Amino acid sequence: MVETLWILGKTLVQIVIILIPIILAVAYLTYAERKIIGYMQVRIGPNRVNFSAIPLLRRGRGLGQPIADTLKLLFKEIIIPSNSDRFLFVIAPILSIAPALAAWAVIPFADGWVLADINAGVLYILAMTSIGVYGVIIAGWASNSKYAFLSTLRVTAQVVSYEIAMGFAIVGVLMAAGSLNLGDIVAAQKGSIIHWFWLPLLPLFVIYFISGVAETNRAPFDVAEGESEIVAGFHVEYSGMLFALFFLAEYANMILISALAAIMFLGGWLSPFQGIPVLENLFSWVPGIFWMLAKMATLLFFFLWFRATFPRYRYDQIMRLGWKIFIPITLVWIVLVGLFILMKLPPWFVA
After folding, report:
1. What angle, rounded to 10 degrees, do the helices at 240-265 and 146-177 form?
2. Over the stretch 187-228, which tens digit does the pLDDT of each residue have?
3. Do 280 and 271 form a contact (C-beta atoms < 8 A)?
4. Is the four-CA dihedral 300, 301, 304, 309 of positive or negative sign?
5. Alpha-carbon distance 291 to 272, whole Å?
6. Which of 172, 186, 264, 269 is placed for a possible disulfide with 288 were both Cys, Cβ 3.0 to 4.6 Å?
C-alpha cells in the first residue's frame, strides 16, 4: 500500500513538473506571437502590462499581458445558448485541451527525461491527437449555430485530408528508425546534423510540418475560424474560460507538433555538432534539453511567421493541396524509403 502511494505521488509530481512549464509556455507563446507579428508589421505589440515590483521587468515589454488576459477570461461570464446541447457545449473545450496535454506523457525532453517510456509512443500520440479533433467538431454541432456548423463541416474535411498525409509522413520515420518508441527514433539519428532524418526524409518533413499547421487550424489554413466569412467559426457562441480553453488547446498543439517534428526529423535532444570533434568538444557542456527546446522554438517561429505572411487559402485550394499533392508525395517517398532499406544503401536508413 505504501509503495503504491509512493509511486502515485511520484507520478503526480512528475505530471505537475511537466504541465506547469507547458501551460506557461502556452501563455507566453501568445505573447511571443503578438510581439513577433507586431515587429513584422512595424508595430510595438503588447507593452503596457508589466511586473512593476521586479526592477528588471518594469520596462514596457508587456510581459504581464498573458496573465492579465487569463484573469480577464476567468472573470468573464460563461454564456450557454438556450437552444444548445448544454452537456456537449461544455465538454467540447475539455475534449480539445485534455488530449493536447495528455500527449506530453510520452514526449522525451532529453535522454531518460520522459514520464512514460512506452514502446508504442507514436501510436499513443496519434490516438490522443485524434481525440482532440472531436472537441472542435462537437463544439460546432452543440452550439446550434449556422456559422459554427459550417465551421464543423470545414474542419471535418480538412482533418481527414491532412491527418492522412501526416500519418504517411510518420510511417516514413518509423520505417527509417525501425521503432515506435520516440526515444529510439532519436537514437536512430545519432551523429551530426546531416545524420538526422530531415535530410533523407525532407519531403516528409515538409509535409508533416505543413500538415501540422493545417491540423492546428493555423493561418493560412484557418478556414475553421474564418473571421471574415463565418464569424469565428466553431467557437462563435463561446465566452469566458470555455472560449479560452480552445485557444489553450490550439497553442498546446502547436508546441506538441513542434516537439514531435524536432524528435522525428531534427534529432530531438541531440547536438547538431555531434561527430564533429572540435565543435562537439566546444559545445559538450550544453545539456540535451537545451537543443530540444531550441529546435522547438525555431519551429514555433515558423508557425508565427506563416500567420504574418500568407493570406488564408480558399477551401478548394486546401483540399487540392492535401489530396492531390501531399498524399501522393508521401506514398511515393514511403516506397522509396522501403527500397532504400531493402537495399541498405544510405547508412542513416539502416536500423
Report:
1. 20
2. 999 888 888 999 889 999 999 999 999 988 887 888 777 665
3. yes
4. negative
5. 8
6. 269
Query: In whole angstroms, how large is the CA radius of gyration of the chain?
Result: 21
Enumerate residues 6+ apart whose C-beta is below 8 A from 348: 176, 189, 191, 195, 197, 199, 200
All cell numbers assigned to 268:
530531438
- Return the residue matching grid coordinates 488547446: 249
**Grid cell digits, residue 56:** 528588471
Q: How far apart are CA 349 and CA 351, in angstroms?
A: 6
- Whole-model pTM: value is 0.92
Which burial class, exposed, middle or buried, applies to 177 when counting CB atoms under 10 A from its CB (0-12, 13-18, 19+)?
A: buried
Give buried/exposed letters for 52-91 (b at 16+ CB in 10 A, else e).
Answer: eeeeeeeeebbbbbbeebbeebeeeeeebeeebbeeebeb
